[in-house]
Write a structure and sequence with these properties.
The protein is α+β, with helices and mostly antiparallel strands. Helices cover 34% and strands 27% of the residues. The chain has 10 helices and 14 strands. It has a 7-stranded antiparallel β-sheet.
């Protein structure tokens, strides 16, 4: 904060409003010359059951409890994240005008996983971040004329040599360059296969894996095709899911809005991917579903022509070399 008097006034008003709302006076704790105000709001309080805050030098500190706020005060006078060389290097490469910074350290993934599982367990079981690739990196979020800008910085010397998914041709890293300038939003990641396996691990920890495997087995029996075994393991490259303007298609039909979804996912083995898509086509044809093909930019795309049967379009899919695409 640049105005310490205004910051103190804000915290005093915050304490007063919390006391009025919950009928609980703050507990004041003195620590290193700072006054920490804290509230124990009870287990039924929403959105949090406890709150603590103070101003320390030029920073306003809000935390879940007194111990957390004390740790933040200690960090100002001892070793803090700003003393970590990797953090300084990564955040130093982000735009100065950013309004938000996110930082992740792969070494802390198991600890973050335990904390998240304890705080908000998922319905399908705790999400195990340690099973996912969480490379050390920093993300900066800036507001620009066109909307929000995200900048990602990762250390060039990060040791990912033990993971074969990190050693692939540079061409796999340009999927986002395949989308038009009118793209509304997109999310991108590395290895759809790795993400899929992490979700399965989460299902296993929550006791839901048996039902999932039975669903995959049912697909195999009905269509002669099991995507869990025949397709997902091949998608070990970069993937991107984009929301685009579209005047027709499945998303447009379901939402009534001029939007469409496109998924691009790459793999190292083009031959295996081609065989997997051929097997999918054969499985659908075996169910006597009407398949139609269309040439798009030199690639062959397939869609299930059910418009005349049920009046609803279904997604289109295809393969362009080592890139699988699925569109609404």
């Amino acid at each position: 904060t640049q105005d310490r008097r205004a910051a103190d006034g804000f915290l005093n008003e915050l304490a007063r409003q919390v006391e009025v709302k919950y009928g609980i006076p703050p507990v004041d704790t003195e620590y290193r010359g700072k006054q920490i105000a804290s509230f124990d709001l009870g287990a039924d309080a929403r959105p949090v059951d406890s709150l603590a805050f103070t101003r320390s030098a030029g920073q306003v500190i809000l935390g879940s409890d007194v111990a957390t706020v004390k740790a933040a005060v200690d960090a100002q006078q001892g070793e803090s994240l700003s003393d970590v060389a990797q953090f300084r290097t990564l955040t130093g490469s982000l735009p100065e005008e950013r309004g938000l910074t996110l930082y992740a350290d792969q070494r802390r993934a198991p600890e973050m996983s335990r904390l998240l599982a304890a705080a908000a367990p998922l319905a399908i079981g705790p999400l195990d971040l340690s099973n996912m690739i969480v490379p050390p990196g920093a993300v900066g979020v800036s507001i620009v004329e066109q909307g929000l800008r995200l900048d990602l910085a990762s250390p060039a010397g990060a040791d990912t040599s033990d993971d074969p998914r990190q050693s692939r041709p540079p061409a796999d890293q340009v999927l986002t360059g395949q989308f038009p300038a009118a793209t509304v939003a997109f999310v991108s990641g590395d290895s759809l296969e790795g993400l899929w396996e992490s979700l399965k691990d989460s299902l296993a920890s929550g006791g839901g894996l048996a039902d999932f495997e039975e669903s995959m087995a049912l697909l195999g029996r009905e269509f002669g095709y099991d995507p869990d075994a025949q397709l997902l393991p091949l998608l070990d490259g970069e993937w991107t899911l984009a929301l685009l303007p579209a005047e027709e298609g499945l998303v447009n039909e379901l939402t009534g809005r001029p939007l469409g979804l496109v998924l691009l996912a790459s793999g190292d083995d083009a031959g295996a991917l081609s065989a997997a898509v051929d097997q999918l086509n054969q499985g659908l044809e075996g169910q006597r579903l009407p398949l139609e093909t269309v040439e798009i930019g030199g690639a062959t795309a397939t869609f299930i022509d059910l418009e005349s049967l049920i009046g609803a379009p279904l997604p289109l899919y295809g393969l362009d070399g080592r890139r699988l695409f699925l569109g609404s």
